[in-house]
Amino acid sequence: MRYFMIILAAVMLTAVAEAHDWEVAEIGGPDSEGSPYEGGEVEFTNNGFTITSTGGDLWSNILGITLVYIEMSGDFTIQYTIEEHTSEPSAVWSKCGAMVMQDLEPDAPYVFIQSTCSNNDTAVNDKGSKIITRPQRGGEAGPGSNGWAPLEWPVTYKLVREGDLFTASVSLDGGKTFESIADADDGKEDNTTLVLEDPFILGIAASGDEDGMPITTTATVTNILINGIDTFAVQSAGKLVTTWSALKNF
Description:
Blueprint: H1 2-18, E1 23-27, E2 39-44, E3 48-54, E4 65-72, E5 76-88, E6 93-101, E7 110-116, H2 121-127, E8 129-134, E9 155-162, E10 165-171, E11 179-180, E12 191-193, E13 200-210, E14 213-214, E15 216-226, E16 229-230, H3 237-247
Antiparallel strand pairs: 1-4, 2-3, 3-15, 4-13, 5-9, 5-15, 6-7, 6-13, 7-8, 9-10, 10-11, 10-12, 13-14, 15-16
């Protein structure tokens, strides 16, 4: 019996090591470009979260975002599904998606997969999805204008980091098949490069801006996999640690 319990405890410790403790950051403020960032909220569920952001922007020199994140090192693949994404009022530049940052400063270098909202026709049919990059701290971000479109919901994304190369793809069938988000007609690539030092920030970000005015973005994100591991599979690492403490004295 004792050996069985030790094996069970080892499995639990492995699960703890693979689980991710998500944290929330509100980055930016009145000086965020796009529009003043007024804050946001995150409500966690058993397989993801609903994130809101009022104001700010994922653009230009100073970010304004709500961010759910972990610290990472090395190469990775993140896959996630945006179940729904709306803005109030309806806005072209309501954004949500995977975010990779050097740190939590508003001027940090980053790579972001833009996904626009579902309740604005221009956002759905023209702006869609694209990779936005700020290669230098405090520098400009780009490219602008249109992206891969039209979007449908739920929409699943995948971002892969291999060294300095980041490559994005999209799926409209729940992750069964993926395709490039490159848009040759608008000169958009499905990849970008960014030099990052370990550790860095990996997460899901949201912002809400329309013509310099703060709007509220709300998105529900589920089924978040990092390197093939469901990041919500283990609900409470603390409980497992307590269990391990009891088992090792069995």
